[in-house]
């Protein structure tokens, strides 16, 4: 388990992509391309398949990433790499 990530056990699930693995709490990198900008968010909380690596994000995590991406693009950012901190997982 990754420090600070506390997913209830019932949130884990069988992977919808590979149909073999189980998801486990972890972090991943997410790359977003938006209006000509490329944004990379590192250490994004997710449930990650232990077989194929597919990542599943909670709605509030995805929403916050999209909001941060919009803010960066509006601010004129073209390329950025940021460590994701402070997004609650539950």
CATH class group:
Alpha Beta
Instruction: Look up the CATH topology.
Output: Ubiquitin-like (UB roll)
Biggest sheet features: 4 strands, mixed
Low-confidence stretches: 1-6
Number of DSSP helical runs = 1
> What is the molecular shape?
elongated
Structural class of the helices, strands and pairings?
Answer: alpha+beta
Strand content is 35-45%
Overview of the structural elements:
With 90 residues, this protein is α+β, with helices and mostly antiparallel strands. It has one domain: Ubiquitin-like (UB roll) (Roll). Helices cover 18% and strands 36% of the residues. It is built from 1 helix and 4 strands, in the order βββαβ. The protein has one helix at 59-74; strands at 23-34, 37-49, 55-56, 79-83. Strands 1, 2, 3 and 4 form a 4-stranded mixed beta sheet that branches. Strand 2 (37-49) and strand 3 (55-56) form a beta hairpin. It starts with 22 loop residues before the first strand and ends in a 7-residue tail after the last strand. Mean pLDDT is 85; it is low at 1-6.
Please provide a brief summary of the model.
Helices cover about 20% and strands about 35% of the residues. The chain is α+β, with helices and mostly antiparallel strands and about 90 residues long.
Key terms for this structure?
90 residues, alpha+beta, Ubiquitin-like (UB roll), 4-stranded mixed beta sheet, disordered N terminus
């Amino acid at each position: 388990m990754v420090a600070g990530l506390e997913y209830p056990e019932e949130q884990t699930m069988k992977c919808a992509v590979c149909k073999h693995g189980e998801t486990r709490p972890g972090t991943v990198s997410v790359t977003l391309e938006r209006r000509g900008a490329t944004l990379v968010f590192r250490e994004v909380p997710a449930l990650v398949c232990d077989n194929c690596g597919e990542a599943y994000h909670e709605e509030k995590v995805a929403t916050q990433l999209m909001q941060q991406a919009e803010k960066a693009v509006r601010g004129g950012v073209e390329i950025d790499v940021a460590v994701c901190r402070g997004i609650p997982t539950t």
